[in-house]
Specification:
218 residues, alpha+beta, 3-stranded antiparallel beta sheet, two-stranded antiparallel ribbon, 5 helices, globular
Length: 218
């Protein structure tokens, strides 16, 4: 199997798992519902967000539209870069896997933003239906991203002496996220841990080529 086909397989598998779980959550739980998987540490907690990964918001109707368009452009750029890399035998396959993870995660959340508002009705106070007769809860580009993984590993309160938040509840890890978010995060951290030298190598190679060209032209 070629490197390109392997990259496509990784992307396809992540997208399938991501979307199947999101659709299951959307059609079986209402907003705020949760299923405890392991004690109080691993919970499926259904939330939706209008913004970026891990529940961070990008406010406003135009902000949401801008974010969706930006995601599409970013995915096109990442996709072009990925398949360019896959054709080069000099690039470590592990690096291609990392880019594939980022690409798959970006597409996974874009699908929610583009289409979920069209194909689902609302999840507030009810379990949503897929392709409802009355239509979806929003329009194209204005779908909300489905999140479900919640890991409140440590709960307590901030010490009273901590400015502005003293005495407030503290939860680690508070953000709720999905498989697409995880895929992006794993890809980025793996690059930072294992492939920073690759970027340096590419930069040095480009500088060397530029110098050689200038010398030749001179």
């Amino acid at each position: 199997m070629s490197r390109t086909k392997k990259a496509l397989l990784i992307i396809f598998l992540i997208l399938i798992v991501d979307q199947v779980l999101k659709i299951w959550i959307k059609t079986n739980l209402a907003i705020g519902d949760e299923i405890v998987i392991f004690k109080d540490w691993f919970i499926l907690h259904f939330v939706e967000n209008n913004g970026m990964a891990f529940g961070f918001e990008f406010a406003g109707e135009y902000g949401k539209m801008f974010l969706s368009v930006f995601r599409i452009l970013a995915v096109v750029a990442i996709g072009w870069y990925l398949f360019k890399l896959a054709k080069s035998k000099e690039v470590p396959f592990g690096f291609i896997v990392c880019i594939s993870l980022i690409f798959a995660g970006a597409i996974g959340n874009i699908i929610d933003s583009l289409f979920y508002g069209l194909i689902f009705n609302d999840s507030y106070g009810q379990v949503a239906s897929l392709f409802p007769a009355e239509g979806g809860y929003s329009s194209f580009l204005h779908g909300r991203v489905v999140d479900m993984f919640y890991f409140p590993l440590i709960e307590g309160r901030y010490p009273e002496w901590v400015p502005s938040v003293g005495g407030d509840p503290f939860i680690f890890f508070r953000p709720v996220f999905n498989i697409a978010d995880s895929s992006i995060t794993v890809g980025i951290f793996a690059i930072l841990l294992f492939y920073r030298k690759y970027f340096n190598k590419v930069e040095v190679s480009n500088e060397t080529n530029t110098t050689a060209e200038e010398t030749t032209q001179g």
